[in-house]
Amino acid sequence: MPFELIVALRYLREGKGQTWLILTGIGVGVGVIIFLSALITGLQKSLVARTLGSQAHVIVRPREEIPRVLPTRDGAVRDATVERPAQRVRSIVQWQRARADIARIPGVVATAPSISGPAIAVRGDGANSVLVRGIEPDSYGRIVNLEAFLKAGRLDLDGFKAVIGTGLAANLGLEVGDRFRLRVGTERDDAGLAVYTVSGIFDIGNKDLNERWVFVSLRAAQSLFGLEGGVSAIEVKGAEIYDAEPLAVLITERTGLVADSWMRSNEQLLTGLRSQSSSSLMIQSFVILAFALGIASVLAVSVVQKSREIGILRATGTSRAQILRIFLLQGSILGLVGSAVGIALGIVLGVFFSRLARNPDGSATFPVSIDTVLYLRSAAIAVGVGLVSAILPARRAARMNPAQIIRSS
Amino acid sequence: MSVPGTGNSDALLRLESVTKDYGTRIVTHVLRGIDLVVEPGEFMALTGPSGSGKTTLLNLIGLLDRPTSGRIAFQGWDIAQLNESETTALRGRSIGFVFQFHHLLPAFTAQENVMLPLLADRGRRDAEMEDRASALLDEVGLADRASYLAVELSGGEQQRVALARSLVMRPPLVLADEPTGNLDSESGAQVFRLLRAFNERYGTTFVIVTHDDRLAVQCDRTVHMVDGRVDSDT
What we know:
The structure holds two protein chains of two kinds.
Chain A: H1 3-14, H2 16-53, E1 58-61, H3 95-104, E2 108-123, E3 126-135, H4 137-141, E4 150-153, E5 161-165, H5 166-172, E6 179-183, E7 193-202, H6 207-212, E8 213-217, H7 218-224, E9 233-238, H8 244-255, E10 258-261, H9 262-265, H10 267-305, H11 307-315, H12 320-356, H13 372-399, H14 402-408
Parallel strand pairs in A: 3-8, 5-7
Antiparallel strand pairs in A: 1-9, 1-10, 2-3, 2-6, 2-9, 4-7, 5-8, 6-7
Helix pairs in contact in A: 1-12, 2-10, 2-12, 2-13, 10-12, 10-13, 11-14, 12-13
Chain B: E1 13-22, E2 28-38, E3 43-47, H1 54-61, E4 69-74, E5 77-78, H2 84-94, E6 95-98, H3 110-122, H4 127-139, H5 155-167, E7 173-177, H6 185-202, E8 205-209, H7 213-216, E9 221-226, E10 229-233
Parallel strand pairs in B: 3-8, 3-9, 6-7, 7-8
Antiparallel strand pairs in B: 1-2, 1-4, 4-5, 9-10
Helix pairs in contact in B: 3-4, 3-5, 4-5, 5-6
């Protein structure tokens, strides 16, 4: 064991009361940081997972239809009042090519074509406005794991089969195997009206979506909305959820289509997450500051208490650099041991808290994530802070003049 | 390295016109021009009334402090030309200290206190330094106290541990500042006998600051200081 470490450890052991006090302080501080981070990370993970469970990272759509102002022959505009046209369900031009282009963009994990359009679901006298979603179960399954939300039946969209939500099923009294009609409510004369058989019932965990979403096959949706061979959207899954916005920008650049990321369409959620993160960061910073000051003051007192011993060490051949290292080591050791105490405390708190607050179904209200990287980071921060806090006291110790100490004592 | 102007490099220590002032606004002239030569193997007493500059001179000789003017050569090295770490290294290896108030580290055992200079010099603990420390503790009659913490020892015992520590690097020079000043007469006499014994056994040079005339007369040479000057050298 190196000389400096021997002396540093001996000094920490000698100042029992002080050492324990500051270790407890650092422990509580690191514990709070760990617990807070784990809680907030867990909370955010579950929020994002819930939001993205039923949603693609990026949805690509055709550009909106805008009316053109037609100039007259001499170039003048006669009538500048332009009415905004009603938006209809439209196909992406050459969507297969667009999809292939998107799939080639780095960071894209999966793509799926889909058609979304409004309709009325009718059974007997009951009617319910719905959003028909035409999908290919295979490609869509790689983006949203619909299978996982199924409560009854199977994910089978062959022919005129449909998968509906629990809300719609309850409203129209539908069960697996029952039939209902879908009516597309546009003014077109050949508006589709088809009979579908319920093959599965899902529960996405969102009342509105459970009432409104009806999944049918892509082909069925194409004929329903008169989009033979076309799709109205390409849904995209990226490798990293928080890279969705730059990915959307990239897709727009490459394809010229409109690309909306989940981050854009859930801006409020994102703002919430961000302010949560920044407030937790602020609390953590103050906790770190508090224990840095604690370590610094304990060591400053120790330097004064030990000035006579520092004089002896210097007189007996200990160099300034060695004295400096002895006190820097003390700071680092306090940080290291304190963070170990804190990590243990944080885990205990986290487990206790996640057991305490439970949903009716038995799952944790605040899922606390246990994260090795977080622990290592906290320990590294604590050691670093210990080291930095020790700099001033250590320099003071190293600069002490042995002759002066010995003369005054 | 030979120092220009020091003709006789056989001297262990050579001081030429050394002065030391303290303070910046109110300047105190503690040493007012000291010329002194100490030869290897000497057993020398440094006496004088308090305030005469004995301890200040000892700190200069011990390389703990630097003179305001004048030249100090130790084993032929001009100490003004050494930097901080060279001074520390030279001090650690060549000069042992015994202070009036024992000055042991309370958190360490007697044996650890003795081997502390070796530990600082080598950086790591080894068996050889433990043996050396044990042997020295045996020589000062404290073999059975090796594992006691410094605070568990009596005053006389602590001073004997400090003496063992000052010798562990086998330095050519040991400086003792009132080594018996804080002890009862019996313990004091025991410590003094040990100083003398080490001087004779290893040829270690001792410079002993004391205001006890009974000790001074037992030394081979007495340098008496008054008001920062050497008053007599016998």
